[in-house]
Design a protein that fits this description.
Elements: E1 18-24, E2 39-40, E3 43-44, H1 50-63, E4 70-73, H2 77-90, E5 95-96, H3 112-118, H4 122-130, H5 142-159, E6 163-169, H6 171-182, E7 197-202, E8 207-214
Parallel strand pairs: 1-6, 4-5, 4-6
Antiparallel strand pairs: 1-7, 2-3, 7-8
């Protein structure tokens, strides 16, 4: 009589859950002190840099066969431009989810945030030490960001049970979603690379992390250092 064997099982998405791929937009145009980014709803709205358009093409190649049922973008054009090649391949019209727009950076919008990071500004150190955005004058609070990101993800999950969706969004939002899913410090997952793919499976009572900052499609020479926000 042969011995009974119990193999290790593979993960399967629970019935009724939404499989959510969080794609950070491609690299956006560089910030210049004499040329602030245009603002949309008070937030910087740069277009993609040439490198970002290449990121978009590579994301499209990676996800073309992923079985997507819907594509979402935010109100900011860098997500729309990043999603465009994939949407064209699949014949899907991206839908807009405003509450997954980037963290509002208050007085540091328009590209100033990048300049402050590059200058090693003390407020940036304080932001990380205190794990909150609103040490930046006028910036969004951690509580407000958490509430809107949670609400948006839960809405999308309710709209897409037993489906897989791609959400083209921003580094701060991906970091917040991961923090909500894991119970980590608010900024623990800040630093997803441009063009990266993270994955959460959302059920009625929990968020399951299945991947963070996947950049395999971007090539072996892709820089390991994350780009600044915006």
């Amino acid at each position: 009589m042969s011995e009974v064997e119990y193999r290790q099982s593979r993960f399967s998405v629970p019935a009724g859950a939404a499989d959510v791929l969080l794609v950070r937009h491609g690299e956006s145009a560089p910030a210049r002190p004499d040329r602030p980014f245009p603002l949309v709803g008070g937030q910087g709205d740069p277009e993609l840099a040439p490198q970002g358009r290449e990121h978009a093409e590579r994301v499209a190649q990676r996800l073309a066969g992923a079985g997507l049922d819907a594509i979402y973008v935010t109100t900011l054009r860098r997500t729309v431009q990043t999603a465009a090649p994939l949407a064209a391949r699949l014949g899907l019209t991206p839908q807009v989810e405003p509450d997954l727009r980037e963290v509002h950076l208050g007085e540091w919008e328009g590209g100033l945030f990048r300049q402050k990071v590059a200058a090693n500004d003390p407020v940036v150190h304080r932001m990380h030490a205190e794990q909150r955005w609103d040490v930046i004058p006028g910036a969004e609070s951690a509580e407000a960001l958490s509430t809107r990101v949670r609400g948006a993800i839960e809405r999308l999950a309710l709209a897409h049970p037993d489906q897989r969706i791609a959400v083209f969004t921003h580094g701060g939002v991906i970091g917040q979603a991961m923090a909500l899913a894991t119970g980590s410090r608010p900024l623990a997952f800040l630093g997803a690379d441009n063009g990266s793919i993270s994955r959460i499976v959302v059920t009625a009572d929990r968020w399951i992390v299945r991947g963070f900052n996947d950049v395999a499609h971007l090539g072996a020479d892709y820089a390991a250092e994350a780009a600044a926000l915006s």
